[in-house]
């Protein structure tokens, strides 16, 4: 006659083996789904793949990406680290510029001096942007407001010279 003392280890080993198989299969499925869900989107739905590819090549770590069309220019708004930026591309995927909001005290001193001493020095300063351009150049865009709330966009080169 077979006693419970002999069957108990056999039953436990069988249960453990089956449990291990189920656990392993469940973990493999969970890993497959979670890695698929975390894959970064490298394509912008509805946008020409050439433009989408050019954007993600230039900004591979971009998140919160949205795009729109402004005339014949593609505007792609995105987040990179703590910064929100607007990248502009033509319809062929050529990068035109990227505008990133910056604080006024982050403007180069020459640009701050141009604002302080220029013809619009009495106007209230508003939003400021660094404008990255092809060739490694950067310009700066500053919105100013008169006492009558007229708005004007001023553009400066890196040396603080106003660009018309």
Low-pLDDT runs of 5+ residues are 32-40
- Tell how many strands the DSSP assignment holds: 8
Distance between the termini: 102 Å
Order of helices and strands: HHEEEEHEEEE
Q: Indicate how many domains the architecture comprises.
A: 2
CATH architectural category of the largest domain:
Roll
Rounded radius of gyration (Å): 29 Å
Could you say which overall geometry the principal axes of the C-alpha atoms support? elongated
β-strand amount: 35-45%
Strand order of the largest sheet: 1-2-3-4-5-6-7-8
Brief synopsis:
This protein is of the alpha+beta class and 164 residues long.
Description:
With 164 residues, this protein is of the alpha+beta class. The protein folds into two domains: 1-39; 49-163, Nuclear Transport Factor 2, Chain: A (Roll). The protein has helices spanning 4-37, 49-58, 109-117; strands at 63-70, 73-80, 83-90, 95-102, 124-133, 137-145, 151-156, 162-163. The model is unreliable at 32-40 (pLDDT under 50).
